[in-house]
Amino acid sequence: PMGNPNGGVSSLTRSLCDAFARAGLQPEADDAIRDRVWYKLLNNASLNPVSAITGMTTHQMYADALTLAWLKALMHETLDVGHALGLARDVDVDERIGQAAKGSDVKTSMLQDVEAGRPTELDPIVGAVIERLESRRAAVIVDVTGSSVSSVSMV
Q1: Is 107 a catalytic residue?
Q2: What is the pLDDT of residue 34?
Q3: Over the range 74-92, which residues count as b (16 or more CB within 10 Å of their CB) and which as e?
Q4: Is the pLDDT of residue 4 over 90?
Q5: Is the CA virtual torsion 128, 134, 137, 139 positive or negative?
Q6: Active-site residue, from 40, 72, 102, 107
Q7: What's the angle, vertex CA 7, arms to CA 85 and CA 97, rounded to 5?
Q8: Selection from 7, 56, 58, 51 nearest residue 30 by Cα
Q9: What's the pTM value of the predicted model, to 2 decimals?
Q10: How far apart are CA 38 and CA 84, in angstroms?
């Protein structure tokens, strides 16, 4: 999907979609692209650090009650940040997890990085959430997220 960061679909976005379509791709113009980005961020900001710390695949995380509660806490904090910044719509976390659980059982990219001894993308994914929050001085508690970031840094 493509769209303008502040909403809507501009003529430039439509031109890009047309160019991608001519190249054989199936682009989609989205007038609420930020919602899509935050929706995806819910998974990335929760699944990636938890899998890197636990070594679990996605379905293993969904099946373990304590790990699932951890994932939900991270998702709720990410949503709280998005709401505080005016960037996220309401999302039912249980529904989001249910949708994700229907997909393939995978090792997240961060877990693959840890296993391969490569640096993780912790800062671009989770650190960006905290950085945006701090830059706006929004009053949102991100204790679980902060603890997870610290824990991944020690792996």
Answers
A1: no
A2: 79
A3: bbbbbbbbbebbeebeebe
A4: no
A5: positive
A6: 40
A7: 60
A8: 7
A9: 0.77
A10: 13
